[in-house]
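Q: I'm writing up a methods section and want to include an example of the input and output format. Could you take the sequence below and give the corresponding predicted structure tokens, formatted cleanly so I can copy it straight into the document?
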Amino acid sequence: MTDILPAPGGKLLLDQPVVPVRIAVLTVSDTRDHDSDTSGGILAERIATAGHICVEKAIVPDDVDAIRAQVRAWIDAGAVDAILTTGGTGLTGRDVTPEALEPLFDKRIDGFSVIFHTVSYQTIGLSTLQSRATAGIIGGVFVFCLPGSNGAVRDGWDRVIRWQLDSRHRPCNLVEIMPRLREV
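A: Here is the clean output for your methods example:
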């Protein structure tokens, strides 16, 4: 008999092994360093706790070229299945993560933004309007762009991304389609 745990949008099959996903974390900030990067730290900790591999963690300034260069380097190295960014999704002039990465998307994951805003609204109400959280696929790698606040990172990982990167989540999950992302 299969052990089943209720999970957001489905169920979790507990008698199945977790397929580890190789994930990189990119903090986009002009002001953070490795000591003050709390949102990147939260993601790295949660990635490991979920049974995945945090391949690398980096910080780049709010600069389109710097963001693109780091994401491309990880993808070109072939060492990651997913990239989580934190920061740069707001409305100010220096917030450029969507401008940097959306043009690189081979496919957008439109539902991510909708679901992220739904769970974010439950936490911060209408302030979720100030986020341009987005996701897509670049070169066969999932890329999720989260706001830089600790609360937004927790909402994004704990209530959305974690479940779709868990190979035990049913009725479906993103892990099961990873081998087919580069199909032509």
